[in-house]
Amino acid sequence: GKVLVSGANGFLAVWVVRAFLENGYSVRGAVRSADKGVHLSKIFNEYREKFEVVEVPDITKGRRCEGAFDEAVKGVDAIAHTASPYHFKADDPAELLEPAIKGTVGMLESARKCGTAVKRIVITSSTAAVVHDEPTPQTFTEADWDDQAVENVQRDGRNASNVHKYRASKTLAERAAWDFMKTHGSSLGWDLTVLNPPLILGPILHEVPSPSLLNTSALQMYNTYATPDFVSGGGCWVDVRDIALAHVLAVKKEAAGGERIIISREAFWWQDWLDATPEAAKSNPKYQKGKPGSQKDVIPPVSYDASKSVRILGIKYRDMEETARDVVRDYEERGW
Ligand code: NDP
């Protein structure tokens, strides 16, 4: 089979491309400009018969079809749509909402009008589209929706918090995808699977000239290890290699069609990562120790029920020791 992966040069997407190639698929990676494909062609050189790069300069604009991907979808059997802005720097919420929503709907439009062979589309949503702020600790499931962020952004616009702007972009994009399926479902040759990961962490394959240019989640991890200020917060996490493989399984498994699936290992405090790699600070004094053990018994405010991912996709999650070890090794190899 052949898969189109959008945003192919991103932190997650490079691992998604690799997972598809390792599982025997051919991959077409969509990037915004040709220069962003150079690193990809280099790292996937051994797969050069099976890997190609296409340029899609603006995912919010269509050409002959209403979507931007009308050329890119031709001849693929499946699509993994990962491209979407993930940062907390937008002043105008439209900076996040537009590419998130129009990119998603545009991809579906292109597949509907131009792609005849597509059998499964996987969209990378997020637990940002699931979680909502609650006064007491909660375990969220696929039945939860983050309408709170959407309401806040609709009410407050530019003055909404940057976290809510991002969360609203993911919620609205995912809702738009399910609405599209409701409208067109019976006439489509494919079905949709949506994956909802929390913070994605792990070693890096994409092109990163210096740590300060890391993507949002990997930068938080790096700052935890490499900046002296104590990092008190936390969240929930999944290893980038596990969520990448989840995209392959979501294409492969019939039963994943029509499903929204949380892909989460567990809740964490940043301190837990430092505690998981006690030898790191010994081998390089630049890596922090934080306050060892200080967060061990603090109850996390947010958890996710990931049982559906095990049931439907059969995911086996990496644990923190393995991910932490591989991340520190990655820093060391890069001289970070
Ligand atoms: P990256 O920033 O590393 O990658 C984002 C990708 O999307 C890049 O290829 C980027 O292209 C592309 N993109 C962003 N904005 C636009 C735009 N306006 N037009 C076209 N392409 C765009 O992020 P991640 O790999 O972390 O995120 C990938 C996906 O996973 C996103 O959908 C994100 O919401 C989701 N996700 C990520 C989590 C995480 O912790 N990392 C957690 C949960 C979900 P370019 O390089 O050209 O900017």
From TrEMBL:
SUPFAM superfamilies: NAD(P)-binding Rossmann-fold domains (SSF51735). Residues 3-259 form the NAD-dependent epimerase/dehydratase domain. GO terms for molecular function: oxidoreductase activity, acting on the CH-OH group of donors, NAD or NADP as acceptor. Transmembrane segments: none annotated. It comes from the Eukaryota. Keywords: Oxidoreductase. Residues 281-301 are annotated as: Disordered. Belongs to the NAD(P)-dependent epimerase/dehydratase family. Dihydroflavonol-4-reductase subfamily. This is D-lactaldehyde dehydrogenase.
